[in-house]
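HOLO CASE FILE
Compound: magnesium ion
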Amino acid sequence: MKKVRTYYDLPAGTRSDIAGQLAAQVERLRRRLESVRHTFAVLSGKGGVGKSLVTANLAAALADRGFAVGVVDADLNGPSMAKLLGAGREPLEVVEDAVRPALGAAGVKVMSMDLLLEGEEAPVNWTGPLQESFIWRGTLEANALREFLSDTEWGELDYLILDLPPGTDRVIPVHGLLADLGGVVLVTLPSELSRFIVSKSLTMSRELGIPVIGYVENMSGYVCPNCERVGPLFESDGSSFELEKGVPQLAEIPFDPIFGRETESGRPGVLACPESRSARALQALADRVLTHFEGKSP
Ligand SMILES: Nc1ncnc2c1ncn2[C@@H]1O[C@H](COP(=O)(O)OP(=O)(O)O)[C@@H](O)[C@H]1O
Ligand SMILES: [Mg+2]
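Model generated. Tokens follow.
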């Protein structure tokens, strides 16, 4: 098997001391992302709110409009991006000093741990002493993320989107690696518990100085697969849910079992069932994101 070259394999002439290696890593990441116009992260803090479904569909919607889009799946322990975007049926190709990302729906470039794991059931195995496992995990995650960003041949991209794992502190390593992260899109359910947790991610992003593009209210109502009417799912349905005053709501996406099933089969619902309410809500999200970055209504 061809070895993927990592930053540990320094080119001849590179300083081998730690400070030198670190400088080389930072420089490598900077050069790799020079050809990327905008990076932003999809974040929540809470698990199971639909971050990955939103990321996959937003990426597909932007790519379908002709933008060059890449996705980094920063959820190493529960990677799902390759599956949701129908990518990774071919082994990853290694070119010079990088690995070529897998191609998913609408040509979205994907880099995810599930493209590197053998077999569907394989979990990521964190080695190291148990009592230090948190430190190990944090370090390993940051290293893996850096490699995903800098050892992947992204090429020219309009948007590089990061799908973050649950955990209100998960934006910290991303900010450490990408000082000019263009923003975060928060995903919440219209419930008090979700608001409680997602608000912490909001505070964390603000403290780090990352622009908050706005929030997505996911699972706002349930679309009946038979009559397509939208019924309530959470108690707050029907009333206006607000994550926090002044933070713009970017979209309200109803829970639609057909939309979910299509996306989970590797055909993002925005492409597979474009007329559905959820697809239209995600297109509205794409509009808002484009307005944020391109500075004009699409
Ligand atoms: N709006 C939606 N309609 C249908 N299914 C959804 C919707 N949002 C999320 N899901 C489903 O809910 C589950 C959790 O979503 P996921 O994107 O994995 O959440 P997270 O990444 O925040 O942990 C998945 O099975 C996903 O397909
Ligand atoms: Mg996820």
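CASE NOTES: The two ends are 45 Å apart (CA to CA). Residues 1-8 have pLDDT under 50 and may be disordered.
CLOSED: yes
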